[in-house]
Amino acid sequence: MPELERLAAHHAPALLRFERVNRAYFARFVRDRGDDYFDEFADRLADLLIEQDTGGCHFHVLVDEHGTVLGRFNLVDVADASAELGYRVAERATGRGLAQEGVRRVCALAREEYGLRRLVASAALANPTSLAVLRRTGFVPVEEVLLGGEPCLRHVLDL
Questions:
Q1: What are the CB-based long-range contacts (under 8 Å, 24+) for 125-132?
Q2: Widest CA span of the chain, in angstroms?
Q3: What is the pLDDT of residues 115-152, one digit of tens each?
């Protein structure tokens, strides 16, 4: 099973490759990040790592034995023992249970390492696979919301 690692500067090349290779695939489910994201990747990553150091966010990558990034599992907007979970898995890695396992692992970290008690996650209604991952990992749907103009279903998980 691939390893879930806390995001670090040494992940930069593999993470950028992951985002570039899967850009069109991800854009099928969430709004594309735009060319600026890739043009300014190094600066954005540096900012994320600073934010992570302050405890405001916890970023993770799922990497295989070769250091290839297969997924991202992030806890953002940490406040009041709560955070927002976001995740994405490489197209070539889908169908292997990696999203579900990654979500389970990051939820355990949220509870055991970061002291969080509640997670919120949203998935596009047009993405039944992501909705199923949230249900299978214990998240409970609470309301429909619009994110980036897309109808989504917000879920919560009490840790």
A1: 125/150, 125/151, 125/152, 125/153, 126/29, 126/150, 126/151, 127/29, 129/94, 129/99, 130/29, 130/99
A2: 40
A3: 999 999 999 998 999 999 999 999 999 999 998 888 99
- What gap in Å lies between CA 27 and CA 131, rounded to an integer? 17
Residue 79 Cα distances to 13, 56, 85, 111, 114, angstroms: 30, 7, 13, 14, 11
**Gyration radius (Cα) of the chain, Å:** 15
Q: What is the pTM of this model?
A: 0.93
Alpha helices in 10-123 (DSSP H): 12-21, 23-27, 35-39, 41-54, 98-112
The residue among 105, 110, 111, 150 whose CA lies nearest residue 131 is 150
Contact 142, 155 (CB under 8 A): yes
Count of CA atoms in the C-beta half-sphere (13 A) of 6: 10
Q: Report whether 154 contacts 145 (CB < 8 A).
A: yes
